[in-house]
Structures
1.
Amino acid sequence: MDKEKLLKNLYAELKKGSIVLVVLAKLHNQHYGYSLVQTLTDDNFAIDQNTLYPLLRRLEEQGLLNSSWEVVEPRPRKYYEISPLGKEVYQSLKETYLKNTNIINNLIKEH
Amino acid sequence: MKLVERYLYQVEKYLPKKTRNEITNELKSLILEQLDDQQIDLDDDIKVAGVLKDFGDPRIVASSYTRQDGVIIKELVPLFYFIMRIIIYTLPITLLFVSMIDYFSSNDTYSVLDLFLSMLYSIPNILMALMASIGILFVVFSSISLGISNEELTEIKWPEFDPLKLPKIPTSIYKISLFEVFFTILASILFLYVLNYQQGIIAIYFEDTRYPLLNDNFNQILLFINIGVVFQIIISIFHLYLRQKTFITKTMEYIHSIYSAVILFVLASTPIFNETIIDGYDLSIVPRIFTILMIIGGIAAIIGGTVEFIKMFVFIKREKI
């Protein structure tokens, strides 16, 4: 496998672990699927829509998100927002993430 | 808009019934949102196809909603279906051909009827071979799914998804019921088996003795009945493969209805019952009822077939309006 492809895969792996955290963070404000894709792209954290849309559904099934259909012209949209359980999980994930980031920063700053 | 609907119809087919509406409604809203955002006209198929291509193959999209870690990883699902379709399409034809060669190589004397029957009786073996092949394919793909790494996945060249080639949405007259198709195939095979192998069970049972009801006249018509039933099985297999009816298969169905009606009229006008048994047991009512039923069946086949055939043109006309 060439270096470019290898790096692409490793970048994707690196990003994969933080997608849930980022999505939960963004959904403290209400979003529908496409607006979330756009927002994340604007924030330089582009996620493939085929990854994001099923993920939203799974997080909803796990009780981390609430959803509601709202008719906004010209068509109905399904809006997602973080649930109370989602907020608790998010805080816990965030703390772990920040702790790990510090550890990793210390580990990699030597080289 | 039609291309979006065709795409959603394909996604829908691979989703569980419970979540089907919810997911397709959301997908539709997301696709339309993206088209709006990019200011793409819904009737501009080329540009709409570009957006749908980004969404991905309907099977992959559906599988990403239905499972996180399936037995077969979602990236392999389209390839799995692709190979399965090749098997379903080629294996029966190959095995029928093999059975034909086998017949010619193992018999010194040939007859069209025997050849036809030998091919007919290979159908259960073909079905078993099909099930075994699909089972092996499933095991192979499951094993690959267990052992393949993400790096190796990116190396594979997948069959390219072309939204412009998405099948059209069947109108209600082109829709099929899978239960009906399976039932037709199984009933037809059973019918063939009984008429060709176990004809003796169509009999009068009296004091522990069985008196066969049918005479040699019936056997002369049997070849034509067999042709009709095999024709029906072929149409059903096409429906199963296409997951819908088409103008061609509907026309084939109509031809089959007319053919069946002719067979039923021939049965009604031919003395196919064993006269000794009928006279001996004073069962003259049986041939009379049989004749009436065959005539009613023949008329129903013609009327039913014609109505179904004409419906197609009524629908086409309505769509144009």
2.
Amino acid sequence: MIEVEKKGEGKKGSEAEEVKEILGAVSAQVPALIKGIIGSVFSEEAGRDMGKAAGAFYKELKESGIPDDVAVEMTENYIGMFTSLGDVLKQAVGGKGKHVKISKLRKESEEGTGADMAQKIKEKMAETEEEE
Amino acid sequence: MVRIRTILSITTSIVRILGSLFALWATFDWKVRRTRKAFEKELVKQGMSKEDARRISAQYKTLKNQLTSTLVNSIRT
């Protein structure tokens, strides 16, 4: 009886050791990873580079004879592509990619031109759902 | 004794993670502001008005909000 208790304690002890090791590694790696991701987008240098790119785009538009308000709007849309990075991350973290894929396929099947095409897409959708 | 040491070590790791995340969150606003300023400066250099440059650089704030909400949601779940 005492031996069984000792064995149980030993198992718990090794589990605690494992948790300790995992947390030790996570506490060092995760903040560094997040810091790296943030630093690659939100830094003075990154802002300057992005500004140079957007500025060159705007300048080219102006030189091509596009009115100022339209050029500004187009530059805004150009930079807007950059914020879609947030959506991509959201999907990656939330695991919404699968749902987007299925809804995209469904939409494609509804808008499809031929019956064969719709049939193929439906088959593909069924395969995707089976995989999940 | 070993168990106490393990518990202390686990607590230290958790405190370290939370501390690092708090430090990141606290400096995030400042980083966004600096990035926006550098971005606006380059746009103004290319001949854009300050107002328009400020409006376009607001995208950084949107991105920051998106990233923050994504992180908060991932921590909650």
